[in-house]
Amino acid sequence: MDDSADEYPGATTVGDFRANVARVRARIDAAAERAGRDPAAVRLLPVSKTVPADRVRLAVEAGCRRLGENKVQEAKRKSAELADVDVAWSLIGHLQTNKAKDVVVFADEFQALDSLRVAEALDRRLQAAGRSLDVLVQVNTSAEEQKYGLDPDAVSGFLRELPRFETLRVRGLMTLALFTTDTARVRRCFQTLRETRNRARDTDPDLIGPGELSMGMSGDFEVAVEEGATCVRVGQAIFGARATPDSHYWPDSTTGR
Q1: How far is the CA of 86 from the CAs of 31, 42, 93, 128, in angstroms?
Q2: What are phi and psi of 47, to 5 degrees?
Q3: In angstroms, rounded to a whole number, what is the distance separating the alpha carbons of residues 94 and 42?
């Protein structure tokens, strides 16, 4: 799980993007088949964080019609710069309540809901805009203090609170695995998310929607697919290695990948 430029070649043309997406898709399909799953049940969400809008435009031309972004301001800016193309935006990073108004402007999906205060802020803004939003609940499956997300044991109670926010359409759960080369420990994070989803389904299936599992990134998405992922969030394997390594996003982590 090496975040090197050799493993993640840069994409600077439409052809490069098509080739990178095809490689990732083939790996997803192979992982699904190993697990006895239908490859079509796994959606690929290209993550364009830190990638300038001109290169993102090439990815859209190559067929990437939904993109993930971590930061609200970056996503809002890119959505404005690419307003002339057919692309939908998923916010996959932490959201502060004062940014809810911005999310309502550009996002079709929010994958990191872990606070009733954020749910309330989004619902209020969405009602004013006359629209709704797909959401996934973020779960902290690694028990790391520096990570956002609910404790797995708190998910069922949190889901019971969400129906009062009528503009939020709950689609399932999301997690970030441990940032480590230990595949067994990474796999356990994904298993925990699947088990959390299954418990929620057993308690009240209406609260979890279709029960999507958004888990897995460039370094571990095949393991995630083997463990039931329905959405994998892949950035570097499509756009190329970032100048800033992924370890930057886990500043308190003691392990690298």
Answers
A1: 29, 21, 22, 25
A2: -110, 115
A3: 23
- How many Å apart are CA 38 and CA 31, to the nearest integer? 10
- Compute the radius of gyration of the chain from its Cα atoms: 17
Q: At what angle do helices 53-61 and 72-81 cross, to 10 degrees?
A: 60
Q: Which CATH architecture best describes the domain 14-242?
A: Alpha-Beta Barrel (3.20)
pLDDT for 192-251, tens place per residue?
Answer: 999 999 999 999 999 999 999 999 999 999 999 999 999 999 999 999 887 765 544 443
What tens digit of pLDDT does each residue of 99-128 get? 999 999 999 999 999 999 999 999 999 999
184: left (phi over 0), alpha (psi -120 to 50) or beta: alpha
Question: What does the block give as tokens for 21?
Answer: 């997406």
- Residue reference for tokens 């109670």: 157
pTM for the full model?
0.91
Q: Please, which residues have CB within 8 angstroms of residue 241's CB and are 6 or more apart in sequence?
A: 3, 4, 5, 7, 8, 9, 10
Please tell me what DSSP assigns to residue 250: S
E strand or H helix at 113: strand 107-113
Domain ranges of the chain: 14-242
